[in-house]
Design a protein that fits this description.
Blueprint (H helix, E strand, L loop, with lengths): L2 H7 L12 H18 L4 H8 L3 H9 L8 H11 L3 H14 L15 H12 L2 E6 L10 H11 L5 H15 L10 E7 L1 H4 L5 H15 L4 E6 L13 E5 L8 E5 L4 E4 L2 H17 L3 H15 L4
Parallel strand pairs: 1-2, 2-3
Antiparallel strand pairs: 1-4, 4-5, 5-6
Helix pairs in contact: 1-6, 2-4, 2-5, 2-6, 3-4, 5-6, 8-9, 11-13
Amino acid sequence: MSAESHRISLLEPYLDRPEPAPTLLKMLVGVQLAGFREDAGLAQDQAARALGFSPAKLSRIEAGKGRRPPAESDVRALLELYGTDDYEASVLLKLLHRAGEPGWWQRYDKRLMPEWFDRLVGLQEAAAAIRTFEIQYVPGLLQTPEYTRAVVRRGLPTAPSAEVRRRVELRTRRTELLQRGEDAPQLWAVIDESVLLRVLGSVDVMREQLAHLVEMAQRSNVTVQIVPLDVTNASAPAIPITYLRFGGLDLPDVVYLEHIRSANFLEDQDETEEYRLALDRLADEALTPRASLELLRKTMEQRYPKA
Protein backbone atom coordinates (compact mmCIF):
# COMPACT_ATOMS: atom_id res chain seq x y z
CA MET A 1 0.00 0.00 0.00
CA SER A 2 1.39 3.40 -0.95
CA ALA A 3 1.93 6.16 1.60
CA GLU A 4 -1.02 8.03 0.10
CA SER A 5 -3.25 4.93 0.33
CA HIS A 6 -2.21 4.38 3.93
CA ARG A 7 -3.00 8.02 4.68
CA ILE A 8 -6.50 7.81 3.30
CA SER A 9 -7.13 4.39 4.91
CA LEU A 10 -7.03 6.23 8.23
CA LEU A 11 -10.21 8.01 7.16
CA GLU A 12 -12.27 4.86 6.64
CA PRO A 13 -13.49 4.74 10.29
CA TYR A 14 -15.23 8.07 9.69
CA LEU A 15 -17.52 6.32 7.21
CA ASP A 16 -19.07 4.33 10.07
CA ARG A 17 -19.70 7.11 12.60
CA PRO A 18 -23.25 6.75 13.93
CA GLU A 19 -23.83 10.51 13.93
CA PRO A 20 -23.13 12.59 10.83
CA ALA A 21 -20.18 14.97 11.19
CA PRO A 22 -20.51 17.15 8.08
CA THR A 23 -18.15 19.92 9.18
CA LEU A 24 -15.37 17.47 10.00
CA LEU A 25 -15.91 15.45 6.81
CA LYS A 26 -15.87 18.56 4.60
CA MET A 27 -12.55 19.52 6.19
CA LEU A 28 -11.14 16.02 5.73
CA VAL A 29 -12.19 15.93 2.08
CA GLY A 30 -10.58 19.32 1.52
CA VAL A 31 -7.33 18.40 3.25
CA GLN A 32 -7.04 15.17 1.26
CA LEU A 33 -7.70 16.96 -2.02
CA ALA A 34 -5.00 19.49 -1.17
CA GLY A 35 -2.64 16.61 -0.40
CA PHE A 36 -3.40 14.89 -3.71
CA ARG A 37 -2.81 18.19 -5.52
CA GLU A 38 0.57 18.63 -3.85
CA ASP A 39 1.50 15.01 -4.61
CA ALA A 40 0.70 15.74 -8.26
CA GLY A 41 3.10 18.70 -8.18
CA LEU A 42 0.43 21.31 -8.88
CA ALA A 43 0.02 24.71 -7.26
CA GLN A 44 -3.51 25.70 -6.30
CA ASP A 45 -3.80 28.25 -9.10
CA GLN A 46 -2.53 25.72 -11.66
CA ALA A 47 -5.13 23.14 -10.64
CA ALA A 48 -7.91 25.72 -10.64
CA ARG A 49 -6.94 26.99 -14.10
CA ALA A 50 -6.75 23.44 -15.51
CA LEU A 51 -10.40 22.82 -14.58
CA GLY A 52 -11.77 26.30 -15.20
CA PHE A 53 -12.30 26.92 -11.47
CA SER A 54 -11.65 30.26 -9.87
CA PRO A 55 -8.79 30.15 -7.34
CA ALA A 56 -11.31 31.18 -4.67
CA LYS A 57 -13.52 28.18 -5.45
CA LEU A 58 -10.68 25.68 -5.11
CA SER A 59 -9.50 27.43 -1.95
CA ARG A 60 -12.98 27.01 -0.42
CA ILE A 61 -13.09 23.33 -1.40
CA GLU A 62 -9.69 22.63 0.16
CA ALA A 63 -10.60 24.57 3.32
CA GLY A 64 -13.85 22.62 3.73
CA LYS A 65 -15.87 25.80 4.11
CA GLY A 66 -19.47 26.50 3.23
CA ARG A 67 -22.75 25.13 4.53
CA ARG A 68 -22.80 22.39 1.88
CA PRO A 69 -19.98 20.08 0.71
CA PRO A 70 -18.51 20.59 -2.76
CA ALA A 71 -20.29 19.14 -5.79
CA GLU A 72 -19.41 15.54 -6.55
CA SER A 73 -18.68 16.47 -10.18
CA ASP A 74 -16.07 19.00 -9.01
CA VAL A 75 -14.43 16.48 -6.67
CA ARG A 76 -14.36 13.81 -9.39
CA ALA A 77 -12.75 16.29 -11.80
CA LEU A 78 -10.06 17.10 -9.22
CA LEU A 79 -9.38 13.42 -8.49
CA GLU A 80 -8.99 12.72 -12.22
CA LEU A 81 -6.67 15.71 -12.66
CA TYR A 82 -4.48 14.50 -9.79
CA GLY A 83 -4.37 10.91 -11.05
CA THR A 84 -5.79 9.56 -7.79
CA ASP A 85 -6.06 5.76 -7.73
CA ASP A 86 -9.40 3.97 -7.53
CA TYR A 87 -9.15 3.02 -3.85
CA GLU A 88 -8.28 6.54 -2.70
CA ALA A 89 -10.96 8.06 -4.89
CA SER A 90 -13.65 5.65 -3.66
CA VAL A 91 -12.95 6.40 0.02
CA LEU A 92 -12.92 10.14 -0.59
CA LEU A 93 -16.19 10.04 -2.53
CA LYS A 94 -17.84 8.02 0.25
CA LEU A 95 -16.67 10.64 2.74
CA LEU A 96 -18.09 13.33 0.47
CA HIS A 97 -21.49 11.60 0.44
CA ARG A 98 -21.51 11.36 4.25
CA ALA A 99 -20.53 15.03 4.44
CA GLY A 100 -23.86 15.79 2.78
CA GLU A 101 -25.83 14.23 5.65
CA PRO A 102 -27.11 16.99 7.95
CA GLY A 103 -25.84 17.19 11.50
CA TRP A 104 -28.48 17.40 14.23
CA TRP A 105 -27.88 21.15 14.60
CA GLN A 106 -28.62 21.79 10.92
CA ARG A 107 -32.26 20.91 11.51
CA TYR A 108 -32.73 24.29 13.20
CA ASP A 109 -33.79 27.25 11.07
CA LYS A 110 -31.24 29.77 9.84
CA ARG A 111 -32.45 32.45 12.26
CA LEU A 112 -31.06 30.35 15.10
CA MET A 113 -28.25 28.86 13.05
CA PRO A 114 -26.58 31.41 10.72
CA GLU A 115 -23.72 30.01 8.65
CA TRP A 116 -20.97 31.18 11.01
CA PHE A 117 -22.69 29.60 14.02
CA ASP A 118 -23.43 26.43 12.05
CA ARG A 119 -19.70 26.15 11.45
CA LEU A 120 -18.82 26.65 15.12
CA VAL A 121 -21.21 23.94 16.30
CA GLY A 122 -19.94 21.58 13.62
CA LEU A 123 -16.33 22.25 14.59
CA GLN A 124 -17.09 21.66 18.27
CA GLU A 125 -18.81 18.38 17.42
CA ALA A 126 -15.70 17.33 15.49
CA ALA A 127 -13.02 18.59 17.89
CA ALA A 128 -10.79 16.38 19.98
CA ALA A 129 -9.99 19.28 22.33
CA ILE A 130 -11.68 22.61 23.02
CA ARG A 131 -10.09 25.45 24.97
CA THR A 132 -12.16 28.48 25.89
CA PHE A 133 -11.85 31.74 27.81
CA GLU A 134 -14.90 33.67 28.97
CA ILE A 135 -15.19 37.11 30.56
CA GLN A 136 -18.95 37.67 30.44
CA TYR A 137 -20.84 34.38 30.77
CA VAL A 138 -20.31 30.78 31.76
CA PRO A 139 -19.01 28.99 28.63
CA GLY A 140 -21.91 27.73 26.54
CA LEU A 141 -20.95 24.06 26.81
CA LEU A 142 -21.13 24.34 30.62
CA GLN A 143 -24.41 26.25 30.95
CA THR A 144 -27.57 24.94 32.59
CA PRO A 145 -30.87 25.40 30.71
CA GLU A 146 -32.13 28.07 33.12
CA TYR A 147 -28.87 30.00 32.95
CA THR A 148 -29.04 29.83 29.15
CA ARG A 149 -32.60 31.13 29.30
CA ALA A 150 -31.42 34.11 31.33
CA VAL A 151 -28.57 34.76 28.86
CA VAL A 152 -30.98 34.67 25.90
CA ARG A 153 -33.46 36.95 27.67
CA ARG A 154 -30.69 39.41 28.42
CA GLY A 155 -29.39 39.45 24.85
CA LEU A 156 -32.79 39.28 23.10
CA PRO A 157 -35.28 40.93 25.46
CA THR A 158 -38.03 41.15 22.82
CA ALA A 159 -37.68 37.59 21.49
CA PRO A 160 -40.95 35.59 21.56
CA SER A 161 -41.20 32.72 24.03
CA ALA A 162 -41.07 30.10 21.28
CA GLU A 163 -37.75 31.45 20.00
CA VAL A 164 -36.29 31.57 23.51
CA ARG A 165 -37.36 27.97 24.05
CA ARG A 166 -35.72 26.84 20.81
CA ARG A 167 -32.48 28.66 21.63
CA VAL A 168 -32.36 27.02 25.06
CA GLU A 169 -33.08 23.65 23.48
CA LEU A 170 -30.26 24.16 20.97
CA ARG A 171 -27.73 25.17 23.64
CA THR A 172 -28.74 22.28 25.88
CA ARG A 173 -28.30 19.80 23.04
CA ARG A 174 -24.83 21.21 22.35
CA THR A 175 -23.71 20.47 25.92
CA GLU A 176 -24.36 16.75 25.40
CA LEU A 177 -21.13 16.34 23.46
CA LEU A 178 -19.17 16.50 26.75
CA GLN A 179 -20.93 13.34 27.89
CA ARG A 180 -20.49 11.42 24.65
CA GLY A 181 -18.40 8.65 26.23
CA GLU A 182 -14.95 7.81 24.88
CA ASP A 183 -15.57 10.07 21.89
CA ALA A 184 -16.16 13.17 24.02
CA PRO A 185 -13.73 16.06 23.52
CA GLN A 186 -11.46 17.41 26.22
CA LEU A 187 -12.72 20.82 27.41
CA TRP A 188 -10.40 23.27 29.15
CA ALA A 189 -12.30 26.37 30.27
CA VAL A 190 -10.72 29.44 31.86
CA ILE A 191 -13.34 31.77 33.34
CA ASP A 192 -13.01 35.23 34.82
CA GLU A 193 -14.25 35.31 38.43
CA SER A 194 -16.64 38.16 37.60
CA VAL A 195 -18.73 35.61 35.67
CA LEU A 196 -19.47 33.83 38.95
CA LEU A 197 -20.59 37.06 40.62
CA ARG A 198 -22.82 38.41 37.85
CA VAL A 199 -26.38 37.37 38.70
CA LEU A 200 -28.34 36.15 35.70
CA GLY A 201 -31.92 35.02 36.22
CA SER A 202 -31.97 34.73 39.99
CA VAL A 203 -29.99 33.52 42.99
CA ASP A 204 -31.48 30.05 42.48
CA VAL A 205 -30.44 30.01 38.83
CA MET A 206 -26.89 30.99 39.80
CA ARG A 207 -26.68 28.41 42.55
CA GLU A 208 -27.79 25.70 40.14
CA GLN A 209 -25.29 26.93 37.55
CA LEU A 210 -22.36 26.94 39.96
CA ALA A 211 -23.35 23.51 41.26
CA HIS A 212 -23.30 22.30 37.66
CA LEU A 213 -19.82 23.80 37.16
CA VAL A 214 -18.62 21.97 40.27
CA GLU A 215 -20.03 18.71 38.93
CA MET A 216 -18.61 19.15 35.43
CA ALA A 217 -15.20 20.25 36.72
CA GLN A 218 -14.82 16.83 38.30
CA ARG A 219 -15.24 14.97 35.01
CA SER A 220 -12.09 13.47 33.54
CA ASN A 221 -12.54 15.34 30.24
CA VAL A 222 -13.28 18.77 31.73
CA THR A 223 -10.83 21.24 33.31
CA VAL A 224 -12.10 24.49 34.83
CA GLN A 225 -9.85 27.30 36.01
CA ILE A 226 -10.93 30.64 37.47
CA VAL A 227 -8.98 33.88 37.02
CA PRO A 228 -9.53 35.62 40.38
CA LEU A 229 -10.41 39.29 40.59
CA ASP A 230 -7.28 40.10 42.58
CA VAL A 231 -5.03 39.12 39.66
CA THR A 232 -4.67 42.68 38.41
CA ASN A 233 -2.08 41.95 35.72
CA ALA A 234 -3.88 39.05 34.05
CA SER A 235 -3.23 38.90 30.32
CA ALA A 236 -6.92 38.50 29.57
CA PRO A 237 -8.03 39.54 26.08
CA ALA A 238 -11.07 41.77 25.73
CA ILE A 239 -13.21 39.14 23.97
CA PRO A 240 -13.96 35.47 24.57
CA ILE A 241 -11.83 32.91 22.74
CA THR A 242 -12.56 29.38 21.60
CA TYR A 243 -9.63 27.27 20.40
CA LEU A 244 -10.27 23.94 18.67
CA ARG A 245 -7.94 21.03 17.88
CA PHE A 246 -8.84 17.96 15.84
CA GLY A 247 -6.55 15.13 16.85
CA GLY A 248 -4.25 14.76 13.87
CA LEU A 249 -5.33 14.00 10.29
CA ASP A 250 -3.45 17.12 9.13
CA LEU A 251 -6.35 19.39 10.11
CA PRO A 252 -5.34 22.88 11.25
CA ASP A 253 -6.22 24.27 14.66
CA VAL A 254 -9.05 26.80 14.51
CA VAL A 255 -9.62 29.89 16.67
CA TYR A 256 -13.18 31.20 16.93
CA LEU A 257 -13.80 34.83 17.89
CA GLU A 258 -17.46 35.78 18.29
CA HIS A 259 -18.99 39.21 17.75
CA ILE A 260 -22.58 40.37 18.19
CA ARG A 261 -23.86 39.23 14.79
CA SER A 262 -20.85 37.58 13.20
CA ALA A 263 -17.65 35.71 13.98
CA ASN A 264 -14.09 35.24 12.77
CA PHE A 265 -12.43 31.88 12.22
CA LEU A 266 -8.63 31.92 12.21
CA GLU A 267 -6.71 28.97 10.75
CA ASP A 268 -3.34 30.45 9.83
CA GLN A 269 -0.79 28.78 12.11
CA ASP A 270 0.96 32.03 13.05
CA GLU A 271 -2.36 33.54 14.19
CA THR A 272 -3.65 30.48 16.04
CA GLU A 273 -0.31 30.09 17.80
CA GLU A 274 -0.69 33.58 19.28
CA TYR A 275 -4.04 32.64 20.78
CA ARG A 276 -2.74 29.32 22.07
CA LEU A 277 0.05 31.16 23.89
CA ALA A 278 -2.47 33.70 25.25
CA LEU A 279 -4.58 30.86 26.65
CA ASP A 280 -1.45 29.26 28.14
CA ARG A 281 -0.63 32.53 29.94
CA LEU A 282 -4.18 32.81 31.25
CA ALA A 283 -4.07 29.26 32.55
CA ASP A 284 -0.78 30.05 34.34
CA GLU A 285 -2.31 33.15 35.96
CA ALA A 286 -5.55 31.42 36.94
CA LEU A 287 -6.12 29.34 40.03
CA THR A 288 -5.25 25.67 39.75
CA PRO A 289 -8.15 23.35 38.91
CA ARG A 290 -8.32 22.23 42.56
CA ALA A 291 -8.29 25.80 43.91
CA SER A 292 -10.83 26.80 41.26
CA LEU A 293 -13.15 24.03 42.43
CA GLU A 294 -12.84 25.31 46.00
CA LEU A 295 -13.65 28.86 44.87
CA LEU A 296 -16.71 27.64 42.98
CA ARG A 297 -18.01 25.87 46.07
CA LYS A 298 -17.25 28.83 48.33
CA THR A 299 -18.96 31.29 45.99
CA MET A 300 -21.99 29.05 45.64
CA GLU A 301 -22.42 28.71 49.43
CA GLN A 302 -21.66 32.30 50.41
CA ARG A 303 -23.16 34.30 47.55
CA TYR A 304 -26.01 32.00 46.52
CA PRO A 305 -27.15 30.20 49.69
CA LYS A 306 -30.15 27.93 49.69
CA ALA A 307 -33.35 29.74 50.60
